[in-house]
């Protein structure tokens, strides 16, 4: 049997294990607190628009922030860990259409070496908004 034929089975086994995210370091927690300061969490959503003005901030190998505007930031806790993100690797999201959704498969790659460094999936998106005065 060819090794590539085993890939779907291996992915299924990896997804059914019990993943425990690493706790944030003090520095990462401080960066997250600073980025979300003055904002209030809303109800989680499964998908967000893939807007060209959205910027990505990596907090840790499993926590990302998508900044839409000064008043709106989405926090995403990845399913699995893309540890390469904390080392400056590039995130590649495989999604369909104009939205990124929970479960969209994500890999990280080192663009200098061309090597894939991690694999995970997007989690729910939690909106953080600046409250109206």
From TrEMBL:
Organism superkingdom: Bacteria
Protein name, as recorded: Lipoprotein
Species per Swiss-Prot/TrEMBL record: Sphingobium cyanobacteriorum
